[in-house]
Design brief:
The chain is built from 14 helices and four strands. With about 350 residues, it is mainly α. The protein has one domain (about 1-350): Up-down Bundle (A middle domain of Talin 1). The chain has a two-stranded antiparallel sheet with strand order 1-4. The protein has a two-stranded antiparallel sheet with strand order 2-3. Helix 4 runs antiparallel to helix 12, helix 9 packs antiparallel against helix 10 and helix 11 packs antiparallel against helix 12 (about 265-290).
């Protein structure tokens, strides 16, 4: 029976990850069409996309009235993102980070992790606190939208401001503008590009809908089988969330990170991890607790959240030393993750 449920969980996670990957790929295409910078794609589009497994599985958990697995999934996934995923990434390349960008998003992640710890002290993340978390997310996105990072260069910003052609103006058209065109030819080019963008959007919509449906159904079965496994093995639901679900739902981040590391895109890597962890707290916990208040058990309050806070602090300190995450620091993060998993055995025995 356990084997069958484990097989269902694995198959569900495969579909969940595959559906998320397809969804992410097509969302990135939309982002590219909208001329969004690489770092912002990592911080928003890719990060939100890679948080979809956590979000969908957490919402599914609220519908079966099992919030214990949610906090385990979120904290376990955030710990895995930093200690496991970034640790593995350093084996492919040292991760160089821009100081100004890292300090802003890194400190913000640390602040909301501290906020999560404070909210958990009374043993419950209430609906009001969920609204606060989600409101912070909305304000954060609005802040990013008005950030200079939103577009790739000043020239496009100026044309968008004064000519009001928005993100439909491509580099090709900008070059034509610089050499000079008559008004009729210029207008014809713009209309042609607008039609190209509209067709591109329409082609992406069915794929996005189907992949999102796969995410929803696979997350439902993943949560159901995870809870069943916990019941059959007589262990806490958080343990399953921390281990099987957290590692499983972190696989999209790992896939993105390994690909980016091979291409030496340090900013995309850090943007993805910081963004994913930020959204796991603000969106996943925010939306889930709005649907159903999340109870904080002893393992979450005294082990998971403090370890998450500690690992986040270590990560910031490692990068702050030289603005590069080196291989030896990645190895240390992996060792910390191994110790973290080993420490779970104490809670399993309780």
């Amino acid at each position: 029976m356990v084997f069958i449920e484990l097989l269902i969980l694995v198959i569900s996670l495969i579909f969940l990850i595959k559906g998320s990957n397809i969804f992410i790929d097509n969302i990135i295409k939309l982002a590219k069409l909208l001329n969004i910078s690489d770092f912002l794609i990592g911080l928003t589009v890719v990060a939100i996309g890679t948080s979809l497994p956590e979000l969908s599985s957490s919402i599914a958990a609220t519908f079966v009235n099992n919030t214990d697995i949610i906090i385990g999934n979120v904290t376990g996934s955030n710990i895995a993102n930093i200690a496991l995923v970034l640790g593995v990434a350093t084996f492919f390349a040292a991760l160089t980070i821009k100081r100004a960008i890292f300090e802003r998003e890194g400190i913000f992640l640390l602040i909301i992790t501290i906020l999560l710890f404070i909210m958990s002290l009374n043993g419950l993340i209430s609906r009001a606190e969920g609204i606060i978390l989600f409101s912070i997310f909305v304000l954060y996105i609005l802040y990013l939208y008005h950030s200079p990072l939103f577009t790739k260069n000043t020239e496009k910003n100026l044309l968008r401001k004064y000519l009001n052609f928005g993100k439909l103006v491509t580099i090709h058209t900008l070059r034509n503008i610089r050499i000079g065109l008559d008004y009729r030819t210029y207008t014809s080019l713009i209309q042609k590009e607008k039609r190209t963008y509209v067709y591109a959007y329409l082609n992406l919509i069915p794929i996005l809908i189907i992949s999102f449906a796969v995410i929803i159904f696979s997350s439902k079965y993943a949560i159901t089988s995870a809870i069943t496994i916990a019941t059959l093995l007589n262990i806490k639901a958080e343990i399953v969330g921390i281990t099987l679900l957290a590692i499983g739902t972190s696989l999209p981040e790992l896939a993105v990170i390994i690909t980016a590391a091979k291409k030496k895109k340090g900013n995309l890597i850090i943007g993805t991890i910081l963004g994913s962890n930020i959204y796991n707290i603000l969106i996943v916990l925010g939306i889930s607790s709005i649907i159903l208040p999340i109870s904080i058990t002893a393992i979450s309050l005294y082990y998971l959240i403090p370890v998450l806070l500690l690992i986040t602090t270590f990560f910031l300190w490692f990068v702050r030393t030289s603005w590069v995450l080196q291989k030896q620091e990645g190895i240390l993060l992996l060792l910390i993750y191994i110790l973290f998993i080993f420490g779970l055995s104490f809670w399993i025995l309780l």
